[in-house]
Specification:
This protein is mainly α. Helix content is 80%, strand content 0%.
């Protein structure tokens, strides 16, 4: 009868002897799964919390799902704008060697470098690669170098960017993008002839322009190349060539309004005023790009003035003022308090349409910058809330007596075995009772140690949270100042554009009046000159008649 109980006790002791490792593995699997689910549901903050513990424990680095956990941790950090944390995680992922997320990780690393203006991690990753970079990675790195050249004016970045982009094979899906980026950088370096050759090479390529390349993207690259060639030709003063190139753009292209506007300017610079006017009229009939309409109206008025069609020019300038002067007056009357009130009303988001009149909103180029600044302030506020909640949870954990279901289950199983032993006596029973006491003491010590470790970890985290709290308070003031400055700059930019537009209308009306007066004065002077010439001729004829 004792044999079954001895077997149960042996299994119980063995089970709890191995429980720490087995439980740890099961917990890691579950936490990785939980973190991934939270990430896919868009709960990036909680996903980051769950996955951070998994990835910070070096014992988990051999786990089959560790790379996946590290990737989702990095992405969660990126989405919550914790760029430093994201950079660290993506770098760890890349250092671990080839994995299915290699391309995405490097791409994010470049994005973070662009945001922070710090390319140290990108350069270190590239330096660690033996031989050529993978084509998709070379494309992202090359584009990054080109952007750095544009932002800093450092030539070596542009040259290095072109070198990387040239490594892409014509069969690669990013080949077209790479060639276009090369052309843009050549323009920036004022290597105009080479840039034109690059864009012409892109136009001459046959579809599919790289395996897997998006067809609509290929069409857009070609249309952008046409505009780029025409602009370069205009810069080289090859105006006839530029016009010819512009006119090769497909009439159904979304870039058509831009082409019409730029062609109108070229015609005007060649004094081909009637052709310029035709382009403008076409543009105003198809206003797919409302931001071009105000400038097109002013250009139309200027061309009419040059054509000496004064009544029409006057009407065109008055039309500009009639439409845009009230808008400018409205913006001029707005106060900073109004601006902040609208932002608050929209719960921390910035939408030009919610604040600016419709005719002014089309010129609101600062939306991205304002949105980023507001996003930063919003993220800081969210982090402050998360910090308060985390501190409350931590304090609660320290005050709570921790109960472990596994410990309770083990003690209950031991109690059941002990109850069944009561009817029996003898050395075997004594030995089993000793083992039961040892087992109880062992699991009590095991879970006591776990409690000590958990409490120590919580106390450590609370100390870190106190430090973060102080930093956040300082950042919060800076973020609000940044939001105010960037938002006001965006508002002022729109106001200045409208002021310039209204001023052009006013000056245009003066120019028309002045030119009209000049023409009338010239006409009178011409008439006086003709009359004097006719009078002199008559006197000469009369004098000759008298002499006869």
């Amino acid at each position: 009868m004792l044999a079954p109980l001895e077997k149960q006790l042996a299994v119980l002791i063995d089970q709890y002897a191995k429980s720490d490792e087995a439980e740890r593995k099961a917990t890691v699997d579950q936490r990785i799964t939980d973190g991934e689910i939270l990430f896919l549901l868009g709960d990036y903050v909680r996903a980051g919390i769950v996955l951070y513990d998994v990835c910070e424990d070096r014992a988990n680095e051999t786990h089959k799902l560790f790379d996946q956990a590290l990737y989702y941790l990095a992405e969660s950090s990126f989405h919550t704008r914790n760029f430093l944390g994201a950079r660290l995680a993506f770098t760890r992922l890349l250092v671990r060697g080839k994995n299915v997320r290699h391309f995405e990780a490097f791409g994010r690393l470049v994005e973070i470098a662009d945001i922070l203006g710090d390319y140290t991690a990108v350069e270190a990753t590239v330096q660690g690669v033996k031989g050529k970079l993978r084509p998709d990675v070379a494309y992202i790195y090359g584009k990054s170098l080109v952007r750095r050249a544009r932002d800093t004016g450092v030539l070596k970045h542009g040259v290095a960017g072109i070198t990387q982009l040239l490594t892409l094979d014509p069969t690669h899906k990013y080949y077209g993008r790479a060639r276009y980026a090369i052309g843009v950088e050549l323009i920036r370096q004022k290597r105009y002839d080479e840039a034109i050759r690059e864009f012409r090479r892109l136009l001459a390529l046959k579809d599919p322009l790289g395996l897997g390349a998006d067809k609509s993207e290929v069409t857009q690259l070609r249309e952008l190349s046409i505009l780029a060639i025409a602009r370069v030709q205009g810069e080289q003063n090859k105006l006839d060539d530029a016009v010819t190139t512009y006119l090769t753009l497909d009439r159904k292209s979304p870039l058509m309004p831009q082409m019409l506007y730029e062609t109108a300017w070229l015609y005007a610079s060649q004094n081909a005023l009637k052709k310029s006017l035709q382009m403008i009229e076409l543009l105003l009939l198809t206003p797919e790009d409302p931001a071009l309409v105000p400038s097109a109206k002013v250009l139309k008025a200027n061309v009419l003035l040059k054509l000496a069609r004064y009544p029409e020019a006057t009407e065109a300038y008055r039309d500009v003022n009639k439409i845009y002067e009230p808008v400018y007056a409205q913006l001029n009357g707005m106060r900073a308090t109004d601006f902040n009130a609208v932002i608050a009303k929209n719960r921390g988001s910035y939408d030009a349409k919610a604040f600016l009149p419709p005719l002014a909103a089309v010129w609101a180029t600062g939306e991205r910058e304002v949105g980023q600044a507001l996003g930063l302030a919003h993220d800081l506020a969210m982090n402050k809330t998360s910090l308060r909640e985390a501190k409350a949870v931590g304090a609660s954990l320290l005050e709570t007596k921790l109960v472990y279901p596994q410990q309770q289950a083990g003690e209950e199983k031991a109690r059941v075995i002990e109850e069944r032993l009561r009817p029996f006596k003898g050395p075997r029973v004594v030995a089993m009772q000793t083992k039961l006491r040892t087992f109880r003491a062992s699991i009590a010590a095991q879970y006591a140690r776990r409690t000590v470790l958990i409490r120590a970890a919580v106390e450590k985290e609370l100390r870190l949270l106190d430090g973060y709290d102080k930093e956040l308070r300082a950042y919060d003031v800076q973020a609000q100042t940044l939001v105010d400055r960037v938002a006001r700059d965006a508002f002022e930019d729109v106001r200045r554009k409208l002021y310039t537009l209204v001023l052009q209308g006013d000056v245009g009306l003066v120019d028309v009046a002045w030119q009209q007066k000049e023409d009338e004065t010239n006409d009178i002077n011409d008439l006086i000159t003709r009359q004097k010439a006719e009078s002199d001729a008559a006197e000469r004829r009369f004098g000759e008649a008298l002499r006869e």
